[in-house]
């Protein structure tokens, strides 16, 4: 996992620089900068909207006594999508928007669920319940 992350930290910025240079040469420097700013602003607004929706849904499910597991995965995707949109570049912006749009976010949520289940099965991650109602004195 660490090697993959290191590889992504090297490859993604190099690709972003290439796409930004290509965009600057194709549509011009000023339009490229304005487009980056526009995607950042749209992404921030969408992240805020989706994040507030996720919080409301989690509160509603918790009030009904349900565990908001799926909504928590939504929150993780929204957080990562918002952070990725803060980085300048068109590739990361596309990934950020995919994480923020509910229909495409479902694909990433499925991947995250499989990854968490795999980690729990292998003992890499441990689930600990901290439910005060089930504690013994």
Strand content: under 5%
Helix tally equals 5
Radius of gyration, in angstroms, nearest whole number: 19 Å
DSSP, total strands: 0
> Biggest β-sheet: count, sense, barrel?
none
Task: Tell me the number of structural domains.
Answer: 1
Fraction in helix: over 70%
Order of helices and strands: HHHHH
InterPro entries: FxsA
Protein name: FxsA cytoplasmic membrane protein
Transmembrane segments: 26-47, 67-88
Organism: Bacillus selenitireducens (strain ATCC 700615 / DSM 15326 / MLS10)
Question: Would you mind describing this structure in some detail?
Answer:
The structure is a single chain. α3 runs antiparallel to α4. This protein has helices at 2-27, 29-63, 69-86, 90-100, 102-122. The protein is flat, with a radius of gyration of 19 Å. The protein has one domain. It contains 5 helices and no strands. With 137 residues, the chain is mostly helical.
Summarize the structure.
Keywords: Membrane, Transmembrane, Transmembrane helix. The chain is mainly alpha-helical.
Write the layout of secondary structure elements.
Elements lengths: L1 H26 L1 H35 L5 H18 L3 H11 L1 H21 L15
Helix pairs in contact: 1-2, 2-3, 2-4, 3-4, 3-5
